[in-house]
Amino acid sequence: MRIGFIGLGRMGANMVRRLVRDGHEIVIYNRTPEKTRELEAEGEGATATFSIADLVAALEKPRAVWVMVPAGDATEAQIAELLEHLEPGDTIIDGGNTNFHDDVRRHADLAKKGIRYVDAGTSGGIWGLQVGYCLMVGGDKESVDPLVPILASLAPKGGYLHVGGPGAGHYVKMVHNGIEYGLMQAYAEGFEIMHANAYDLDLAAISDLWMQGSVVRSWLLELLGRAYRAQGQDLEHLKGYVEDSGEGRWTVQDAIDHDVPAPVITLSLLTRFRSRQEDSYGAKVLAALRNEFGGHAVKTE
Fold first, then answer.
1. Could you read off the pLDDT of 256-290 as tens digits, one per residue?
2. Largest Cα–Cα distance of the chain, in whole Å?
3. DSSP readout, 19-86?
4. Whole-angstrom Cα distance, residue 78 to residue 198?
5. Residue closest to 30 by CA, chosen among 70, 79, 69
6. Which end of the chain, N or C, is less surrounded by CB atoms within 10 Å?
7. Percentage of residues in the chain having pLDDT higher than 70
8. Dihedral of CA 169/172/178/182: which sign?
9. Is it the case that residue 301 has pLDDT exceeding 80?
């Protein structure tokens, strides 16, 4: 299948590589032309273009273009530029971490122009080239079905699913990432408890052990073992600063909107906020209050 692909970051470039290896012809474009040239130079299957107009011109009708750029303004701008060149019957696939509300709006807006829109929640990170990407796909059936050869190449066996209508793919991916927050926080807390213990435990070995039949085994746990072996179990070269890309916030907001209690995901998100503070002002308030009402000792700078 021949398809356009915009956005050649670490994840996007590997997705193109996986598609090329499976025999697809990919017309590629990246805002930074060096990445486009580098990927084309790797071998046959990826055709470089250096403008959106050239990318669209290199595709046969009806065209399909996969957009893999940061969610928000970057994606909005890229879709707006594509619309200057696409025609009725063409399809835009957004594979980024877009808010599902934006998908619903885009689908309606693009439908008025005769352009199809598919949202593809994509999980797999930098390991997707090797093991495949889990794809959660939303959109109309007539828009998704022609893309099955691409989805099947990107995903491992059983690794893609048309989960529902417009926005459903990114909605499921949003909740997926919210769950990921909770899993990661649980591992972080458990391993910090073991790190603080007096037993001098080999945390990498324990990670590997728990991968063998334990009910807490997971790919995240396997990756933690890799991190310990690469960086040492004190992780002394890392700063405990944890960003979030939005999906955790959206999951918590959706839980609130539907009166669903989600304490684990919510607290894991708030813990990420705390990780970004050099010194918590709230903790200072707590210390001041304890000192005022109980005369408890405080530490001063």
1. 999 999 999 999 999 999 999 998 999 999 999 99
2. 77
3. HHHTT-EEEEE-SSHHHHHHHHTT-TTEEE-SSHHHHHHTSPSSPEEEE-S-TTHHHHHHHHHHHTT-
4. 54
5. 69
6. C
7. 100
8. negative
9. no
What pLDDT is attached to residue 245? 85
Show the tokens assigned to 102: 């934006």
Compute how many other C-beta atoms are within 10 angstroms of the C-beta atom of residue 253: 12
Which residues, including other chains, have CB under 8 Å from residue 228's CB and lie 6 or more apart? 203, 204, 207, 235
- Type of residue numbered 29: Y
Strands (E), 191-288: none
Spatial separation of the C-alpha atoms in residues 188 and 173, rounded to whole Å: 22
Helix (H) or strand (E) holding 266: helix 263-275
Strand partners, 178: none
Q: What is the DSSP string of 111-143?
A: HTTT-EEEEEEEE-GGGHHHH--EEEEES-HHH
Q: How many CB atoms lie within 10 A of CB 13?
A: 22
Give the pLDDT band of residue 214 (cuts 50, 70, 90). very high
Q: Which amino acid is at 21?
A: R
Tally: H helices and E strands in the chain: 14, 8
The CA-CA-CA angle for residues 224, 9, 164, to 5°, reads 80
